[in-house]
Write a structure and sequence with these properties.
The complex is a heterodimer.
Chain A lengths: L6 E15 L2 E14 L3 E5 L6 H8 L7 E6 L2 E2 L3 H7 E4 L11 H11 L4 H14 L15 H13 L5 E5 L7 H16 L3 E6 L2 H7 L2 E6 L2 E6 L1 H6 L6 E6 L4 H10 L5 E5 L4 E6 L5 H10 L6 E5 L3 H9 L6
Parallel strand pairs in A: 3-8, 3-9, 6-7, 7-8
Antiparallel strand pairs in A: 1-2, 1-4, 4-5, 9-10, 11-13, 11-14, 12-13
Chain B lengths: L1 H16 L1 H25 L7 H33 L3 H4 L5 H31 L10 H25 L5 H14 L14 H6 L4 H13 L8 H27 L2
Helix pairs in contact in B: 1-5, 2-3, 2-5, 3-5, 3-6, 3-9, 5-6, 5-10, 6-9, 6-10, 9-10
Classes of the chains: A alpha/beta, B mainly alpha.
Chain lengths: ~325, ~250
Amino acid sequence: MAEQAEAIIDIEGLKKTYTLDSHRHVEAVKGIKFSVNAGEIFGLLGPNGAGKTTTIGMLTTRVKVTAGDAFIAGINIRDEVAVKRLIAVVPQQNNLDRSLTARENLTFHAKYFGVPKQVREKKAEELLKMMGLKGRQDDYVRAFSGGMAQRLMIARALMHEPKVLFLDEATTGLDPQSRRLLWDKVRELNESGQTILLTTHYMDEADELCHRIAIIDHGEVLALDTPHNLKRMVPGGNRIDLELPEAPDRLVDILRGIDRTGVISRRDEEDRVILSVHGGQGLIPGIIKAVQETNTDILSVQLHHVTLEDLFIHLTGRRLRD
Amino acid sequence: MKTFVALLQRDVTVLIRDLPEFVMRIAMQPFLFVFVFGYVLPSIGQVKSSYANLLLPGILAASMMMAGVQGTAIPLSQDFGAIKEIEDRLMAPIRISMVVLEKIVMGTLQAWIAGGLVFPLAWAIMRSNLSLHVTSFSYLFLYLFLVGLASAATGITLGTIISPFKIPLMFATIIIPMIFLGATYYPWHALSNVVWLQTIILINPMVYAAEGFRSVLTPGIPHIRMLFTILGLFAAVIILSGIGLRGFIKRAYS
């Protein structure tokens, strides 16, 4: 999405230091700087404790800023009440109002924001439907499953039509099916124009959903770009491994010719040879053709996609989830 | 303002929905006190029938305190400590201090309901032993107002300090002593033989609540002067609201 689009969140050197006692401080966020464009799904990806939630906390007025500035739609985040009107947060933990029904959770929330009665009733109806909760609207939320609660929290967040929707580790703890469903809903929302800032420690989630991702660790942004560009930062990139009983020189020459990067590695094992060709799946037909032309058998072809996890390891030497 | 009213409406809706449970919770204790001390014991000659008079202002104060504290401290403690329900209200477009004020209003309201229940209970159970003499309705309402606020402010303070797992401990170590050492079941002046106790309990807002009610309901019984009880309650409201507000804000931000 649009590099030239207007920024809706501007973060300028935002910093949070927690004081444990008189001489021990923890710098949870160390002066980060980036902006999020209107209409974008922007992801903060990093391991637990990287400073993602603290960053979101500051942007959503729930964590006091130590230094630096941030603006949401031009409003300084220190102007708490004004910022709260513009945003909504879906947290990791279920914080629905257990004394109320699903529908009441939505309508009371809207009431806090001064949404007129007719509008909020109609909106609640629509959102319950959209989130697949129709039929459960009059049930108390105590009995809701994790996935249902998460969807209802998103519905609640949308009741006052926020300019930015924050999803803080919103899919953690959900079963794979509920996660998929939630991803679909997030995409659907974004397609209707909703700006979304999400944090996650799942690299597949960031990769699949986000237009741009900031990789964050120890309170610092290590890299920021589209998932595609981020993965290109990993040396070598995608790779195809060919497992062959033998590798005639002619085949190696042909493969060298196909290979865009000109790099090929060869590993000889007892009864087979593994040739690694750098490049993506688009190269497979050519490779197969070359193999057939040289009358070589193929034991297996494996495509290795570079993941954001690889990038994280490249940047930090550690895995995302240790 | 709209947001403040909406927050109140949410709490009132839930309160009305749980009304039977709420009434049972806050009426049981005053009912038992009125029944045992105002009816059973005088009937079997263990206490003088005039004890009912001494008792009523104390029960009124204790019931209000109990309801106000329970109505604020328990939900707050659970909210901050475990269920985080309050987050949606913290994210409402309103200052955090107004969320606290709303909690105080709700606690006060619950204390008033509790206080309002004591009168018919007393009348129904021990009216033959009761001779109330309301000196001034305006002062009675002033006391009801102040005691309600003081109980809610106490609840906010406790609710922001105490973790949900320590609620039983809070009752054992704070609420019960406040009530038993609050000139509730005996007039403060009667403690003149135990001066150290008489002095120490002056830090307990319950003393000003019970003695204040005595001054307007049963003026015949020796009581602390109105001026002092009103000042004492004012001080309790201001100090405890201040501590509660600070504690709340500290918990609301991380």
